[in-house]
Amino acid sequence: MKIGLLGFGVVGRGVYDILAQRKDISVGTVLCRRDLGELTARTTRDMADIIADPEIDTVVEVMGGLHPAFEYVSAALKAGKNVVTSNKHLLCHYYQELNQLAKEHGAVLRGTAAVGGGIPWLVNLERAARVDQIHKLSGIMNGTTNYIMDAMNKSDVDFADVLKKAQELGYAEADPSADIDGWDIQRKLIISAGVAFGVCLQEEDVPVFGIRNVSAADIRRFQARGLTCKLIASAEKLSDSVAAYVEPKLLGADALEAAVPANFNLISFESEYAGKQSFFGQGAGRYPTAYNVVQDLADIASGVDRFYTDKFQSAATNNAGALHKYYVRTKAELPELEALAAEDWDGAVVTLPVSVAQMHSLLQKMLEVDPQSFIAGL
Ligand SMILES: NC(=O)c1ccc[n+]([C@@H]2O[C@H](COP(=O)([O-])OP(=O)(O)OC[C@H]3O[C@@H](n4cnc5c(N)ncnc54)[C@H](OP(=O)(O)O)[C@@H]3O)[C@@H](O)[C@H]2O)c1
């Protein structure tokens, strides 16, 4: 197998290093925008060189972003080349179109590293879905936010200080918004729900609230009640729709997710025959992520020609029936919130059970009045 490698950053360099140890899969050409120094592979700045090279049968896209990744991956598939990508943004937006192209041109499209980094999550979800009915999936899908929550749960520190440390350690980007505001998790949840339930969810329909506003005082209130706060993605298959959302959640000490340390991930699914299965490991990082890219390449080399799923029923997102209590800390005085209040936690409110749909719409009103408002599901 000969590879065209698109991107030579954190993941691309990792893929290159791992493949340097193998004889059956080699990197033929690296697409780059700058001088990469001495490599055993050719380099080019023009994707057309990779498309036109008959020796390159598989393209690895580890550039990130939607464009030109979409155009490059489409061109590779149209040329009958297999594609392996770690790009969750690309798969979330264009999974159906790219799968269709792969099918039409007899190529394979894989993207195991796009969700869970080094964790064999999507491949196991695919295996479960082919023999079992998956009802639910949930968990910690982002290492940066888990690192921050873990640090805040373990010592009395402010969010801003922990974020700064995470950036110094390379766990958080200079612009951390995609992680701390939950957008990265939303994309992973949509890809996972697609594989698990065979549905296409739209990003604008999946409500997201991240951890940007969590304070040390919130954490103290949770700890006084034996609770741990984590940022959790959830999706549940309903008869003709899916409940799906991303929000902070307060967990008791017996929840597996409560014990997930540092920048690790833990993702679970629940299905009819297998029951609950959980997957724990490194959700990001050069070699864990490159490991799953190379696993996909090895699968293709050994003849795997399946897609994760090619069932794409359009399904509405419906969070009206997903009910639970919420912790709410806000300075906004809203009659709807007062009507829901059930307990006072030292100045914050715990509500009666309320739908996720209603609480996220209420949250938008709270944020307009008090941009520091914070909610967490119970
Ligand atoms: N890092 C992780 O732990 C991780 C985990 C799971 C999934 N992913 C996903 O993997 C993908 C890559 O992530 P990364 O962390 O490796 O990113 P990165 O370190 O920023 O590397 C991206 C690479 O792609 C190159 N590139 C970007 N646009 C290009 C273009 N138009 N033409 C040619 N080269 C281009 C960049 O070149 P320059 O150096 O010239 O900018 C850089 O070499 C993303 O989709 C990310 O979401 C990453």
Q: Would you state the CATH class of the largest domain? A: Alpha Beta
Class of secondary structure makeup? alpha/beta
The number of domains is 3
| Residues in β-strands, percent | 25-35%
Strand order of the largest sheet: 3-2-1-4-5-6
Unreliable residue runs: none
CATH architecture of the largest domain: 2-Layer Sandwich
Number of helices: 13
What's the β-strand tally?
Answer: 20
Bound molecules: NADP nicotinamide-adenine-dinucleotide phosphate
What does this structure look like?
The protein has 378 residues and is an alpha/beta fold. It contains 13 helices and 20 strands. The N and C termini lie far apart (49 Å). The model has no long low-confidence stretch (mean pLDDT 96). It folds into 3 domains: 109 residues, Rossmann fold, CATH 3.40.50.720; 148 residues, Dihydrodipicolinate Reductase, domain 2 (2-Layer Sandwich); 59 residues, no CATH class. The structure holds NADP nicotinamide-adenine-dinucleotide phosphate. The site of NADP nicotinamide-adenine-dinucleotide phosphate has 23 residues, from helix 1.
